[in-house]
Amino acid sequence: MYYREIAALRFWTFVDQSQSCWIWKGAKTSTGYGLFIAEAKKGQKHQRVLAHRYAWSLANDQEISFKHHLHHTCGNRLCVNPTHLELTTVSKHRGLHAKAYCKRGHLKPGKRCKECNKMMTKIWWQRIGNARRKEKRQLERQG
Ligand SMILES: [Zn+2]
Ligand SMILES: [Zn+2]
Ligand SMILES: [Zn+2]
Questions:
Q1: Which of 35, 40, 42, 123 is 20 to 30 A away from residue 142, measured at CA?
Q2: What strand order describes the sheet that includes 47-50?
Q3: Where are the domains of the chain?
Q4: Residue 41: CA atoms inside 13 Å, Cβ hemisphere, count?
């Protein structure tokens, strides 16, 4: 067997394929992506690669240049299912994320962020509650 194939076999032992998103179970980067450390050939350094990039390369038999990113169409950074990954240029990818994520970093499928909306509604109700309590205290003081 070739070195590449041995590394590939080891790679898939870290992947849970029981659902549509194939979840990486190995090491993670600080940004929440899967990290695969491919064993080195003799005399070479270990290769640290992002798991989803590795998976895509294997599936498409194609290297990814540093000018390209893979976008997770499922929004799941730990997913390594190649069909959930879209090859895109770095600049296009940044644009995509500016649109796909709100300023607080929630994934938003529509124009407005549902998560932020929920949060704002909660804050709003808290304010109304506080105002009511204050009003009640004042009324009580007046007797
Ligand atoms: Zn996925
Ligand atoms: Zn992306
Ligand atoms: Zn948000």
A1: 123
A2: 27-28, 34-38, 47-50
A3: 3-100, 110-143
A4: 5
CA–centroid distance, 80 to ligand 1, in Å, is 7
- How close is the Cα of 56 to the center of ligand 3, in Å? 29
**Mean pLDDT, residues 56-82 taken together:** 94
Query: Amino acid identity of 60?
Result: N
Does the pTM surpass 0.85? The reply is no
70 CA distance to ligand 2 centroid (A)?
Answer: 6
What's the CA-to-centroid distance between 80 and ligand 2, angstroms? 13
- The pLDDT score that the predictor gives to residue 105 is 75
CATH 2.60.120 describes domain 3-100: no
Q: Counting ligands in written order, which one lies closest to the CA of residue 53?
A: 2
